[in-house]
Design brief:
The complex is a heterodimer of chains A (437) and B (284).
Chain A lengths: L1 H22 L9 E7 L2 H18 L2 E7 L1 H13 L7 E5 L3 H6 L7 H6 L10 H6 L2 E2 L2 E2 L1 E8 L1 E5 H7 L7 H13 L1 H6 L2 E4 L11 H6 L24 H14 L12 H9 L3 E6 L1 H8 L5 H6 E4 L8 E8 L6 H11 L2 H11 L6 H4 L5 H17 L9 H6 L1 H10 L5 H18 L6
Parallel strand pairs in A: 1-2, 1-3, 8-9
Antiparallel strand pairs in A: 3-11, 4-5, 6-11, 7-9, 7-10
Helix pairs in contact in A: 11-21, 20-21
Chain B lengths: L1 H31 L2 E2 L7 E2 L3 H8 L1 H32 L6 H10 L6 H11 L6 H6 L12 H26 L3 H9 L4 H29 L3 H6 L11 H11 L3 H30 L3
Antiparallel strand pairs in B: 1-2
Helix pairs in contact in B: 3-7, 3-9, 3-11, 7-9, 9-12, 11-12
Classes of the chains: A alpha/beta (437), B mainly alpha (284).
Chain lengths: 437, 284
């Protein structure tokens, strides 16, 4: 008898399990598979990975993910776009790629979605984040996903001991650097005034940073100071020569070997307590400081606005690909990934750069991120963009960047180098479809 | 009649594959080299402009010079060190011989990308093994005008085992009778090496040299991770320049013209090199 009861219970349970899902509410995008091309940068990647089961549960969308690091994502996406493989519906991309993708018709403007979706409210985003990621030629091509602006990290303990104030211009900055470098106590400890990146991959050797950090940005009034609103070259040659000469001279104030420093080396140098100041992408360095092993250094570290010029923005947006056949689902996905709630969650859980205003003022973050988050908010509100023309990749990784590195490392005199850069820029703009008068 | 045609039918599949995967892309690339052809932009016919620009480009000449230095230095050092190691490992070393022989080949099996990352750590000016060995602090091997030589060093570390393995195999194939006959004739160790061993393994050396020569001229992966062509293009080779033009700048037309000229130049150099070896040693 007992057996019969147990058996009956099992049969009833199995039947219930089979029947219940048929009564479950049908989701809006049940059966839709969205192909997402994510960037391998850890915080962004973790956020996209997190979304896979959540989006399935919420919208019924299955996510098929691909990923690539910064160095190869752009050309991998371009190959798929040019061949119209339809390989991706949604792509997480850097804002400087916008022109190449938008001008080629590979990503769609989101304006119609924005206009027709009553749920969508762009005012939740930090204005600069929304504009940089990614407004292009009067249209919105992406929703802001990951945002950061260059910050200065400095050693509060050293500054307090020596009576230094946070530098606000290049003279003050240089005085501090040289005071520390000439102090026998710090020399013995192997501590340098500042560490920067002079190598080719990224960093100060890039023309953008070098040039921008020399003047009041408001005097330029165009996207990046290289070209005007009509895409005609407007480089202020004397300023640029001065900028390069300044940074050439600063090589002698930097730790030896800095010519080979890219991002990882510069981050590590600061983490090892060997520099009193550095200016880097803040998320990664702050993430390293949050490691319990670096708690001591974190307590000694302060953040401030960069001392010279205006901070560069590092911005990532989420785009919808033109070849996508499921753009409605794609819109729902990118909207979901950039809500204020998820922005806060992604920052807290994965360290993704916040784009929503609410994240910067959230009370729960004050204790851990207080000063840093405030500094980030200010840096982003002032941040300037690299530019978005279709040939941007030539500017930050082609001959233009090689010449810049030659000047920075003293292989080429600044005056001659700037002439070469202007010549190179002419070609870059013309290839992007902007003939030079 | 059918038998007469059968041979053509039999080679047809291979011919179609060859035509579609080698000949067609070659002509497609040749055609592309006459255009300003950029991903995402309409192609524009420019005739020989890409070729003229190439000859006028200081970046191309710089890359060519770097490639020549890189190839000559790397292949020469790999040959000498590989030869010495092979001769040493050809001797009786007892228990250690299999262990050392195997250990010596390990670098060859590491991906060049990984080799680049490892050497980037080794060359770190403040924490790297290189500075520790030299007893210096702050010396950046890849941050100065000698960077190319330090990239060559990483290449030599990785590819010397290739030379060593091929030469060792050739050494072991020399019939002992020849060496014994030399000894009976009263040759010294050095004479035996120069007049018997070296001529006997010269065919293997030529093969190893040719393979390494072709491989080193396309060096890209190691440079990509170790220096990214820097500082200031100081380690930029032809392979890297073509890669940069095609996949960073997306200038497919220019990159194609670079690649075609490079292929022709390398083809001529290798043919002449093999021809010279043939005349000099009568072995190819």
């Amino acid at each position: 008898m007992k057996r019969i009861i147990v058996l009956s219970l099992i049969v009833v349970s199995v039947l219930l399990i089979a029947i219940v899902p048929t009564f479950a509410a049908e989701k809006r995008f049940d059966g839709v598979t969205l192909k997402v091309f994510a960037n391998s940068h850890d915080p962004m990647l973790k956020a996209v990975k997190w979304s896979v089961p959540v989006v399935k549960e919420k919208f019924g969308i299955d996510i098929l993910m691909d990923e690539a690091p910064y160095g190869t994502q752009f050309d991998k996406a371009m190959s798929a776009f040019v061949a119209h493989t339809g390989q991706y519906d949604v792509i997480v991309g850097a804002h400087q790629w916008t022109g190449a993708w938008a001008d080629g018709g590979y990503v769609i403007p989101l304006d119609d979605f924005i206009k027709n979706d009553p749920e969508f409210d762009p005012s939740i985003y930090v204005e600069k984040a929304y504009q940089i990621n990614s407004e292009w030629k009067g249209k919105q091509y992406a929703l802001p996903f990951n945002m950061e602006g260059r910050l200065m990290f400095y050693r509060k303990d050293i500054f307090e001991k020596e009576g230094f104030k946070v530098p606000t211009n290049r003279e003050e900055w240089l005085n501090i650097v040289q005071s520390i470098n000439n102090n026998p106590e710090y020399k013995e400890k192997g501590i340098w005034g500042a560490v920067y990146m002079y190598a080719t991959e990224q960093g100060i050797s890039y023309p953008f940073e070098t040039y921008f950090q020399m003047f009041d940005w408001n005097s330029i009034k165009t996207e990046n100071g290289f070209w005007d609103e009509n895409f005609q070259i407007c480089i202020d040659k004397p300023k640029m020569v001065e900028a390069f000469q300044y940074w050439q001279d600063r090589l002698k104030d930097m730790p030896p070997g800095v010519e080979s420093y890219n991002l990882p080396e510069a981050y590590q140098f600061y983490i090892d307590g060997k520099a009193a100041m550095t200016e880097v992408w803040p998320l990664t360095l702050y993430g390293m400081l949050l490691d319990p092993a670096n708690a001591d250094l974190r307590a000694k570290t302060g953040t401030a606005d960069i001392a010279i010029g205006y901070p560069m923005s590092g911005g990532w947006g989420i785009f919808i690909c033109a070849d996508s056949k499921i753009q409605e689902a794609a819109w729902e996905y990118i909207k979901f990934m950039t809500t204020a709630e998820n922005d806060l969650f992604f920052f807290k859980e994965f360290g993704k750069g916040p784009s929503a205003k609410a994240t910067y003022t959230d009370d729960s973050l004050k204790e851990t991120y207080g000063d840093w988050l405030k500094g980030q908010s200010e840096a982003i509100s002032k941040a300037v963009s690299y530019g978005k023309i279709a040939t941007m990749s030539e500017l930050y990784g082609g001959n233009f960047a090689v010449i810049t590195n030659q000047i920075m490392t003293g292989k080429l005199p600044a005056e001659e180098g700037v002439d070469k850069l202007i010549e190179e820029l002419k070609g870059i703009l013309e290839r992007a479809g902007y003939p030079q008068k | 009649m059918i038998e007469k045609r059968l041979k053509y039918y039999l080679i047809l599949p291979a011919f179609i594959i060859f035509l579609s995967l080698a000949i067609y892309p070659l002509f497609f690339a040749l055609r592309g080299s006459f255009y300003i052809w950029r991903y995402g932009m309409p192609a524009q016919f420019v005739g020989l402009k890409n070729y003229i620009d190439l000859f006028k480009s200081s970046f191309a000449w710089n890359a060519l010079q770097n490639t020549i230095i890189y190839v000559i230095l790397a292949v020469f050092l790999e040959l000498i060190i590989g030869l010495v190691l092979a001769v040493l490992m050809n001797r009786e070393l007892g228990f250690f011989r299999p262990v050392v022989r195997t250990a010596l080949t390990i670098p060859m099996f590491v991906s060049p990308i990984v080799v680049g990352i490892i050497w980037r750590m080794i060359y770190n000016p403040h924490y790297g093994l290189f500075n520790w060995l030299l007893g210096t602090q702050g010396f950046a091997p890849t941050g100065n005008e000698y960077a190319l030589f330090f990239v060559v060093l990483a290449d030599v570390w990785q590819w010397t085992p290739f030379m060593y393995v091929i030469i060792l195999a050739a050494l072991q194939s020399i019939p002992p009778e020849i060496l014994e006959a030399g000894e009976i004739d009263g040759t010294t160790g050095w004479q035996k090496f120069i007049h018997i061993t070296l001529p006997s393994i010269s065919y293997a050396i030529i093969i190893a040299l040719t393979l390494r020569f072709m491989d080193a001229t396309k060096a890209l992966d190691l440079i990509y991770t170790l220096t990214y062509g820097g500082p200031g293009g100081g380690t930029e080779t032809i392979g890297f320049l073509i890669f940069r033009t095609a996949f960073n700048d997306l200038n497919i037309g220019s990159a194609t013209s670079f690649a075609l000229i490079f292929t022709i130049v390398m083809g001529i150099l290798i043919t002449r090199f093999l021809g010279w070896l043939n005349r000099r040693f009568e072995i190819v």
